[in-house]
Amino acid sequence: MTFSLPPTVTDRAYNRLAEIIEATGEVKALRVAVDGGGCSGFQYDITLDDPAEDDLCLEKDGQIVVVDPVSLPFLENAVIDFSEELIGARFVIENPNATASCGCGTSFSM
């Protein structure tokens, strides 16, 4: 798997991250990672964390989203967004590399 284009982050996701940081008072980056597991083979792991030296850092207005080098190829050309619906609010990944995903949207296969 070769890496060419990094993921992008929507304004909505950056804005929600800013709200979370303001509410918690804890300055952290939003880490988006891909782990093995889930019902479709891979799953997204989205947490607040400190950036590591080898992370890709995507930044806007002081808000930082980080992706580790192992997860980066799985997130090529992906869009990191924030969705608010009647059933809940969450960060979501629109991943063009995923060939299938589960109903909850946190697990996918390639």
TrEMBL record:
Span of domain Core: 8-105
PANTHER family in the record: IRON-SULFUR CLUSTER ASSEMBLY 2 HOMOLOG, MITOCHONDRIAL
Protein's recorded name: Iron-sulfur cluster insertion protein ErpA
Organism: Celeribacter arenosi
Superkingdom of the source species: Bacteria
Pfam families for this protein: Fe-S_biosyn (PF01521)
TM region(s), chain numbering: none
InterPro entries referenced in this protein's UniProt entry, alphabetically: ATAP, ATAP_core_dom, FeS_cluster_insertion_CS, HesB-like_dom_sf
NCBIfam families in the cross-refs: iron-sulfur cluster assembly accessory protein
Source organism phylogeny: Bacteria, Pseudomonadati, Pseudomonadota, Alphaproteobacteria, Rhodobacterales
